[in-house]
């Protein structure tokens, strides 16, 4: 074995380090996935609320009585 080759102990440490990093990255990816999923649900709910709010003025105008451009009675 030459001096430039890592020892078994060094290789074991490197493998342990890589396994810890992989575990941390897996956990981070799962957390990000859950966050993105929650945000998409919230975005969908907000889009539905906006659509309902847009419909309200249209419904109110359709149900209004009398002409829209009629001057007030005191004129």
Annotate the secondary structure layout.
Blueprint: H1 8-63
Please, could you describe this protein's structure?
With 75 residues, the chain is an all-alpha fold. Helices cover 75% and strands 0% of the residues. The protein has one helix and no strands. The radius of gyration is 32 Å and the shape is rod-shaped. The relative contact order is 0.05. The model has no long low-confidence stretch (mean pLDDT 87).
User: Main sheet?
Assistant: none
Count of helix runs = 1
Beta-sheet strand percentage? under 5%
Shape: rod-shaped
**Helix content class:** over 70%
Strand pairing plus helix content: what structural class?
Answer: mainly alpha
How confident is the prediction overall: mean pLDDT?
Answer: 87
Head-to-tail CA distance between termini: 106 Å
User: What is the number of strand segments?
Assistant: 0
Keywords for this entry:
75 residues, mainly alpha, 1 helix, 75% helix, 0% strand
Short characterization:
The chain contains 1 helix and no strands. It has one helix at 8-63.
């Amino acid at each position: 074995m030459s001096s430039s080759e890592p020892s078994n102990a060094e290789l074991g440490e490197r493998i342990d380090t890589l396994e810890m990093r992989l575990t941390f990255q897996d956990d981070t990816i799962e957390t990000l996935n859950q966050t993105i999923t929650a945000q998409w649900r919230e975005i969908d709910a907000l889009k539905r609320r906006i659509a309902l709010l847009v419909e309200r003025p249209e419904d109110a105008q359709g149900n209004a009585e009398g002409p829209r451009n009629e001057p007030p009675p005191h004129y």
